[in-house]
Write a structure and sequence with these properties.
The chain has 13 helices and 15 strands. By secondary structure, it is α/β, with parallel strands linked by helices. The chain has two domains: 232 residues, Thiamin diphosphate (ThDP)-binding fold, Pyr/PP domains (Rossmann fold), CATH 3.40.50.970; 134 residues, Rossmann fold (3-Layer(aba) Sandwich), CATH 3.40.50.920. It has a seven-stranded mixed β-sheet with strand order 3-2-4-5-7-6-12, sandwiched between helices. A six-stranded mixed β-sheet has the order 9-11-10-13-14-15, with helices on both faces. It has a two-stranded antiparallel sheet with strand order 1-8.
């Protein structure tokens, strides 16, 4: 195999190029910071004749996803991208896309939600969509954003899934920062994703079907929603299977959960997305000092890889969960809720500390990571109760 050329690119550039290589039938989109350069870059690919996609520039994000749903229901392979208030504006359509079993792939540049107005990265937007029936992937790097986007098409269109997928990357830190990347040949990507063969396209007049029908009275609605749950459960195996297949092609590993140093770790940080790098960097420094510490990073969030996270943390004395969003009124933030549930269901007895970090793009520093590991040692010694703490803020 020829050596692959490494180059510098932003996360948004890598996502746009992944879309270019897949060459979906339709992209309907509306620009919003920090996602803009994904759809802007793709519009240039269309204008330059590098893709055959029908590009639909809409007047809003709600219309963008509505157009995507219509195109997907008609039998097209469909992609789009959004962020923050744009994702919030799509909320009504998010449920319709999953309920109609439309295998749309949508990139989300993770960003804070207003108010106050903030254009920087956190997970407030994407966590607000966690119960909409979409598969969800989190990229740590621009390279992962590229790989995740390609894998997402295979999972979304898998006959046992047929659900939309959100592939996410953190605003500015991943979307706009330059990273070292490699890209596969166009034909390699095309061969991997293959041709999309829709099961029940609305434009198949020989086999007419209904979509989005009225389901009321009795338990018909519940039966339908149960099939949706089963489909998203099926996505766990599909993510692993298609992710491993892509890993064999590229030589880049794919795991549902990236577990670093956890085999003998007494203290573990669980984190999503770009700030995992700082957590691992600090963990390495502490390892050099003889501390048994580790880092766990889920690469998918929906369906939630509960067993894999529990397995990675089963020997720990205490675990810190770092959330970049909060669930107001709940005793725990979104990722912490999932991790605690996973531990309870799988018999993991580790103590858990909850932290909210990096809201609105606030810095997540090595010093903060060191504080978290120190807090875990103190917790194991009987200090503290693990209640939620906003890291870096004096209350």
């Amino acid at each position: 195999m020829a050596e692959k050329k490494m180059f510098s690119a932003t996360g948004n550039q890598m996502v746009a190029d992944a879309f270019r290589q897949v060459n979906p039938d339709v992209m309907a989109a509306y620009p919003i910071t920090p996602q803009t350069t994904i759809v802007e870059g793709y519009a240039k690919f269309v204008a330059d004749g590098k893709v055959t996609t029908e590009y639909v520039p809409t007047e809003s994000e709600h219309s963008a996803l509505s157009a995507c749903i219509g195109a997907s229901a008609a039998g097209a392979r469909v992609a789009t991208a959004t962020s923050s208030q744009g994702l919030a504006y799509m909320w009504e359509e998010l449920h319709i896309a999953s309920g109609m079993r439309c295998p749309i792939v949508m990139a989300n540049a993770n960003r804070a939600l207003s108010a106050p107005i903030n254009i920087h990265g956190d997970h407030s937007d994407i966590m607000s969509a966690r119960d909409c029936g979409w598969g969800m992937m989190f990229a740590e790097t621009a390279q992962e954003a590229y790989d995740n986007t390609i894998i997402a098409f295979k999972v979304a269109e898998d006959p046992n899934v047929l659900l939309p997928i959100l592939t996410t990357l953190d605003g500015f830190v991943t979307t706009h920062a330059m990273d070292c990347c490699v890209m596969e040949e166009d034909q390699v990507v095309k061969d991997f994703v293959g041709n999309y063969e829709p099961k029940y396209p609305l434009l198949d007049t020989e086999n007419p079907v209904g979509q989005g029908m009225f389901a009321t009275l009795g338990n018909g609605y519940m039966k339908y929603k149960l099939t949706e749950r089963h489909a998203l459960d099926n996505a766990m195996e599909a993510f692993e299977r298609h992710g491993k297949e892509w890993a064999e092609i590229t030589g880049r590993p794919f795991e549902l959960v990236d577990a670093w140093g956890t085999e003998d770790a007494d203290f573990i940080i669980v984190v999503l997305g770009s700030c995992a790098g700082n957590a691992r960097f600090q963990a390495r420094k502490l390892r050099e000092q003889g501390k048994k510490v580790g880092v766990v990073r889920p690469r998918i969030f929906r369906p939630f890889p509960a067993k894999q996270i529990a397995e990675a943390c089963k020997n720990a004395k205490a675990v810190a969960v770092l959330d970049r969003s909060d669930s107001y009124g709940s005793p725990h933030a979104p990722l912490a809720l999932e991790v605690r549930s996973a531990f309870h269901a799988n018999g993991v007895d580790a103590l858990v500390n909850d932290y909210v970090v990096g809201l609105g793009g606030a810095d997540i520093t090595l010093e903060q990571m060191n504080t978290v590991f120190s807090d875990l040692e103190a917790r194991a010694a009987g200090e503290g109760d693990g209640s939620i703490k906003y890291l870096g803020i004096e209350e």
